[in-house]
Amino acid sequence: MRTIIWFREDLRLSDNTSLTYACQQGEVIPVFFQPKGLGGASKWWLHHSLANLDKALSEQGSQLNLFKGKPEVVLPKLCKELNADQVVWGRVYSPSGMELGAKVKEALDHIGIIAKSFNDQLLIEPTRIKNKQGSPFKVFTPFWRHCLSVLAPEPPLPVPALRPTNHREPISDEQCSLNELGLLPRKPNWAVGFEDIWKPGESGATHSWSNFLEGPIARYKDDRDIPHKDGTSKLSPHLAFGEISVRQLWFDLQGLMASGEVSHTQGNKFLSEIGWREFSRYLLVHFPYLERSPFNSKFDHFPWGDNQELSDAWTKGETGYPIVDAGMRELWKTGYMHNRVRMIVASFLTKHCLTHWHVGMDWFWDTLLDADIGNNTASWQWAAGCGADAAPYFRIFNPILQGEKFDKEGSYVKKWVPELSKVPNKFIHKPWECDSLVLKELGVVLGEDYPFPVVDHKQARETALSAYAVLKTID
Ligand code: FAD
């Protein structure tokens, strides 16, 4: 039996059910298709992740064959050219990912080729989970409680032994090289520096996971909210591209909790974050319109503003609110932003600036290395107050108090907004309250070296609340 394995968002060899299945059947031909709609930062990651996957396959005498073109057109052609009997892949649980999977299956069925897909992205198949009434859950806590009561993931699979085919020549007109996929930024190369911070690919993912288990997991529950600490796993881009399996994370942590090496409090807190990832995808499977439309349809009528200057200040990290600016600059420089700060900047954009959550979601999509359709959509809707299980709209984060609470010493702000590095801690989250002469001596003239706040917090809060009041009048 000769099998084409279509790598999609599971760019790994270990615990890859479709790959293992293919290897058990006989010869294997690995392929990958240029994806559509990725943001710039994700493309950078993908380039390196594909190189890493190809290297791992080469070590087993195989190779990753890259293609442009539509999978539903090219895969049937490849099956004929290569005498393949079947095509297997890991399912992608996004609306466009599911649509593409269905199209490919139909095209293969049409020519009598076996098409098989597996769940390699989630702990649990989204369609399996329903509430007592047989409807999809809409609130996280009962969803996750229910998942925990039924979860029985298969133990992770080892890297299978590959029996590759012997072709080395291009196997179709649509085949291309990694560079021809055009994933890397050219002029300007804004990804300079990413390589010093990140190691895309399965080996990098395993390394990050081991590091996390050796240190930060012991304090995860407390440290995960402190942006200047290395308190979280930084696994998100690896998970977005499936370079490590969630089943692996689950089994490793269950083992460590059982042996007492990781406390249940810490381990379960981490697993509940994995639960949020499951919930985000689950919601998209059951309510695909959430990709662009609010869960709470009243928000269709929300009077979003369109102040370009405000959203520009936000993207550039020049709002005059240090914690917001630090987050936006961390994002630009590293392709990542700490979760607490993501919540603060998202609240600021949607509430203080009254800017549509699409604007923020699209910016994140383009600039985050971990851009993930499920997590990004659900989190933006959560922050804007219009999502399933969302923060109520009237809960407006105060960027000064949030900064003072989670970045007490201002270490995070001082790192990413260096022009404020000498400002005393008392004023680090509200430099405009510091005497201007004192500030000048510290090298900061507001309005020149660092902006005045683009909106006044109290006034912006009032405006946001009156905009919200409009929703209350809608049935
Ligand atoms: P850890 O704390 O180590 O968590 C482990 C994993 O759990 C993460 O890698 C992630 O897969 C998952 N996870 C953690 N927090 C959440 C959450 N709140 N919702 C869903 N899954 C979570 N995460 C993305 O992966 N991609 C996105 O595009 C994305 N966009 C976001 C946009 C906004 C406005 C907000 C508020 C959050 C967003 N998140 C997104 C969620 C979260 O910020 C990141 O997953 C987390 O910061 C990644 O860092 P980590 O891997 O060190 O997290």
Molecular shape? globular
Q: How is the main sheet built? A: 7 strands, mixed
Write down the secondary-structure element order: EHEHEHEHEHEEHHHHHHHHHHHHHHH
Tally of helical runs: 20
How far is the N terminus from the C terminus?
59 Å
Could you say which small molecules are bound to this protein? flavin-adenine dinucleotide
Helicity range:
40-55%
Radius of gyration: 24 Å
| Overall SS class | alpha/beta
Low-confidence stretches: none
Mean pLDDT: 95
How much beta, percentage-wise?
Answer: 5-15%
According to DSSP, the number of beta strands is 7
Compact description:
By secondary structure, this protein is of the alpha/beta class. It contains 20 helices and 7 strands.
Folded structure, characterized:
This protein is of the alpha/beta class and 475 residues long. The chain is 47% helix and 6% strand. It has 20 helices and seven strands. Strands 1, 2, 3, 4, 5, 6 and 7 form a seven-stranded mixed beta sheet that branches. Helix 4 links the parallel strand 4 and strand 5. Flavin-adenine dinucleotide (FAD) is lined by residues 224, 232-236, 239-240, 273-274, 276-277, 280, 339, 342-343, 346, 364, 368, 370-372, 375-376, 379-380, 383.
